[in-house]
Amino acid sequence: MSPLKIRAKELVNAINTMENHSKIFNKKFLEVLPPEKLDEVFKNLTASLGKAIGVRELTTESATAGTLSIEFEKFIGKGTITIDEEEPNLVSGFHISNVETKTETLQGLICDLKKLPGRASLAAFKLEGEELKDLGSHNPDLSLAIGSAFKLYVLAELARRIEKGDAKWEDVIKLEVSSCPSGNNWPIGSPVTLHTLASMMISTSDNTATDQLIKFLGRESVENVMKESGHMSPELNIPFLTTSEFFKIKGDAHRKDFETEFINKTAKERRELLDEELSQIPNDKVDLGKFAKPNHIDSIEWFASCYDLGRIMNWLKQCSDEGDYLRGVLSINKGLPAELAKQWNYVGFKGGSESGVINLTYLLESKNGEWFVVTGSWNDTKANVDTLQFVGILNKAIELIDKKH
Fold it and tell me: Which helix (H) or strand (E) holds 263?
């Protein structure tokens, strides 16, 4: 047996027993991830995936590196392993980047979904013109918090504005706002194209880019495209929050318990609070510690059902063409393992999350030219959701759709 296979087998045992780390991992690995931290990683893995059973597959790329699949009780974990060239060939790198459920039918995935704490939804739709053909679903009409997946509606309004000829992807505007947290540190006044803002909003979920686009387009315009796309409960998102407003409300930036005050206001009163009071509060007043656990996720968030997200993805598909800027923006970050993404002609993606919330939404074109949307959400008001487990369920749903169609 090769040293790589020996170490892979020992790795499975280490995940379960959390023993003999110094005999399996090299010094540099344990400097980056000390034994106590490594134990924490393994505990989280087994809590989510179940006990590690064994190496299911090991594909060697060289004598010291390979990709491997580890079978756990509930899921299959896929990742990479590397070892030292010199004896005793200790592990120098290990990472699980993807999980797959063992379930092999959509109905089985729905059964898995029903076991999750809190509330969850899942739907696979085939796009037939403006219609969504339900191929298998659970709670497809249930409006749940979707996190940053709301940015699809901002993108839709931008696309509509461009389609009407009122703007161009190449147009340059000056940055007027900032958010907290954000992925960029651009100074106010920086010149930036609409295409760059859209790309950052969708691919990296940049909050400053999002809020700048909402300011450019207008809050009410985004609300209108949400309604026109067929959202079944648009009142849940009115007034349509910017990310900065979201963090200020829930992060005690204005005054203590402001979120409760905000919830009890009418839509008109909320809009006035946003425009007249909250806009004056600096982002550095936000207490990000308030987001360490679920925080009013059932009342202060952005909400949509599987059908709502299927419709907005279909809307974006219908107002775009192969190779154009809009489809390009949606596909920068495909949100899938590379091997799974390669099975499709096109993958568009936007997801969203905060403590207690996750959404994953995909626009997919099969090799034979058929179009699909696969989307799912999971909300738990009492605890953080298991992202790894939910990603595994959605990945399997997409794999099953590909095999069947």
Answer: helix 258-263
Q: Exposed (0-12), middle (13-18) or buried (19+): which is 171, by Cβ within 10 Å?
A: middle
Return the bridge partners of 83, or none: 91
CB contact at 8 A, 181 and 207: yes
How many Cα atoms within 13 Å fall on the side-chain side of residue 19?
3
Whether the per-residue pLDDT at 323 is higher than 90: the answer is no
**Pairwise CA distance, residues 376 & 388, whole Å:** 14
Q: For residues 379 and 119, what is the distance between their CA atoms, to the nearest angstrom?
A: 5
179, 141 contact by CB (below 8 A)? no
In sequence order, which ranges of 72-134 are alpha helices (DSSP H)? 106-114
For residue 142, pLDDT beyond 90: yes
β-bridge pairing 91-101 and 131-138: unpaired
If you average pLDDT over residues 264-289, what whole number do you get? 92
How many whole angstroms separate alpha carbon 346 and alpha carbon 352? 20
Q: How far is CA 100 from the centre of its chain?
A: 16
Helix, strand or coil for residue 303? Answer: strand
